[in-house]
Amino acid sequence: MTSTATAGAPHPPHYTSVPGWTREPIIQPADPVGRVHTVIEVVEEDPAATGLVVAGWVGDLDGRDVRHRACTDTAAGVAALEADLMAAKVGHRVLVAGSAAACLAVRAAGVRAGLADDEMAFGVVSVGTRTVWCVHCSVTTVAELALDDVVACSGCERSLLVYPHVSRRTGQHLGFMVDAEET
Amino acid sequence: MRRLSLVVAGIDDTVPAVRRLVLAPADGGELPSYTPGSHLVLDVPSGAGRERALANAYSLVGESLHPSTYEVAVLLRDAAEGAAGGSAWVHGLRIGDPVTTMPPRSSFAPVQPATRHLLVAAGIGITPLVSHLRFHARWGREAELLYLHREGRGALVAEVDELAPGATEHFHNRVSVLARLRDRLLEQPIGAHLYTCGPTGFMDLVVAEARAAGWPASRIHLEHFGLDDLDPGEPFDVTVGEQRFEVASGVSLLEAMEKQGYAVPNLCRQGVCGECRLDLGPTTTGVWHRDLYLTDDDKAAGGCAMACVSRALPAAGGRAHLEVLL
Amino acid sequence: MSITHPAGLSPTVSAPDLVTGFPFPFPQETYRYSTNVEPAPGAVPTPTGQWGEAVVDVDSEYVHELVERAAILGRDRSRHAWLPHMDVACWDAMLCLMRELSLTRPEAMALTVLEPGVRPRYHWRNDLLGIDHTFLLGDPSTLPDEPLAWIAAQVQEDIVLLDQRDGVLYGDAGVVTFAADWSFGFDVGMSFLEIHGPVPRLHGEGIITRAHEFLKRLQPGETYRRTNWTLTIGRRLDVSTELYPEWGPDRDAVLLLDDEAFGRDVHLRVEVQHLIRLPESGAVMFLIRTYLLPLVDLVQVEHWRVRTADVLEELPQDLADYKGVAKYRHRTAAWLRARGDAGSAVAG
Fold first, then answer.
1. Domain residues of chain A, as ranges?
2. Cis ω on the peptide bond leading into residue A19 (within 30° of 0)?
3. Given a contact as 3+ CB pairs under 8 Å, which chains touch A?
4. Please, which pLDDT band fits residue C283 given cuts at 50, 70 and 90?
5. Chain-wide mean pLDDT for chain B?
6. Are strands B220-223 and B193-197 parallel, antiparallel or unpaired?
7. Could you tell me the domains of chain B?
């Protein structure tokens, strides 16, 4: 086999489990094909920014059936999504505005409810906070973190590497002990 | 490519122009199980008006799990309308005749996470959906079928009524089936998937209805197989090294190259198997791929084409040209 | 040990069949990732014997490894996971593995279709584990356990089931107890491409996308295989990310061992991976079988000794890092080189 060595080149975004919108704030467009749109707005630290994202979507979807759910935190966002999807029909789209961490958590709820990737869009206003799942003790740690940072696990206190690997089902980053080999 | 040696073990000509063929292993052995929605590619020998051997794909309609026979339902197509003669050969088979096939191939399987399956068939397009219904009956999946066929000429009507009792609706004109579809598309729970098989024009209408009802592309599935002959296309010219020749409308690049004396490896001649893939040079004006083999990335890159179904697309000047690299 | 050895081989640490059946993974003097798939099964002759004749291999570690799997599952249920839509694939995988087992060990195992039809009835016999059971397809009440768990307790292979939808394969079910530095419990539900996201070099060279395209086109009845490899310290099958704090320190500690202990502790770890399209569900079954051979046994074959040293010395640093062998690959290579004078029992 012939190959051109491109070791060290950044991974094209579609090969990785880390969505591009968790690396930088990206606002995806609403899908005009959708018939009903649930807009989950997770208002955390920057209400003005999320408000702008939502206003943009609502403007683009003028005349469509848009259900705006303003939520004060991620858990409320997940609950609002789950409630809206209970009786939802195909044709439904979900738009989520908020931090990358909130978007990942709500996306996970959408994936668990059977939504396809082309039924969800995200408007990310901040990417600073990440949720890290400790592969050793299963406890999650939430903190201001970049990929490849190290954080102390809030469960087992091990120093965890924030691995560039994100679960679709939970929206959490894989964290594993960074200094396990140091004896 | 592995081949199965089968014999004709049963023939049912009850439905006008549709022959149901039961094929059993020639040696009495076992047949492989297959995925619902699979098709069988039959080797059709040359002769009796067929210039060359054909490989015709027909959806399997029988039991897919530990099958003792393979069953297909084949619509007789009219040579005057451009049919190459494969269906006429099937309709001429007799009990005990040998038939060789490729093992079943899957390209239209039920989607496992679907919470409900909406099936829309037109005419002989019912065939792949029959094995879907068998799967749904076995595993208790929710399914409903809208089936458009000419009164008294519908294939497998009794079968689908039995497999999906109370969940099958029959229609005898396009307007009524599309009106019903419009309603049903609005009523599918969020996890549902849509499957359609029939003439291309019909499937286009089904897709348009689904899109109008807000369905995303990932929930819409089409089976193109064995239904329409391909568009004959416009003529285009080809260079192979120093040699230049024209491919006429209705003639494939593969046929044209064979006529010029090139031995191009090929198998299905329907854009499925990938055997006749050709590399293309930079003077190629554009490719109308039409195959089901190459990936979207391959097609976008434009460096190759399937000789059996692909044609040149014209450049701005109107000239359509393929540069074949052998 | 009261085991007998094939002629020409010195007494080995491993049971003889683990040497004669070892799938030596280096066809070339250098190693790079590639889409190295080939049709399976098919016997590959080696200087000591052969491997690859069966899709599901049963060797002298059978009962021992199954006991170990059960213990791991007992401690950590996340090693067995399935998303709800994988129910059909789990039954499908169970039937396929039973059929493969009965091909591998026809004298001890047999799957019989008692009644075909919409919901077939089967009889399964596995004399090695004393199982004699009749069940109805799709009826969980006729099985002693969930289908995937039950069959995973009867094969040495780890199992991952990939669902294909919208042109993408998703790792949506499996039983993985012998993972080599990955976490199945975390990855379940990810796409095949996402699972391989962290692996260096794979993407730039298009290897993983080609593998993905290949897998998507795999047809029922077609079976392919590939090999992968790394080094493992100790005969430790479970080197999952979950247990990294347990086995990670070995990578430093091994450097402190004397040569004799080093040769017994460091193992060439080879995965033989089989890829099978399951007929009923359309899922792709990924079987991962792990073989471990200590260096002391590896050097019984001159070709294995030299080739392994060649590969380890030349391996690019990023691959060595990813495979977790960076710290001790040069010591391993030197250890192998130093055994050259003594001569090996079997010429390569």
1. 19-126, 129-177
2. no
3. B, C
4. very high
5. 90
6. parallel
7. 4-101 (2.40.30.10), 117-223 (3.40.50.80), 236-325 (3.10.20.30)
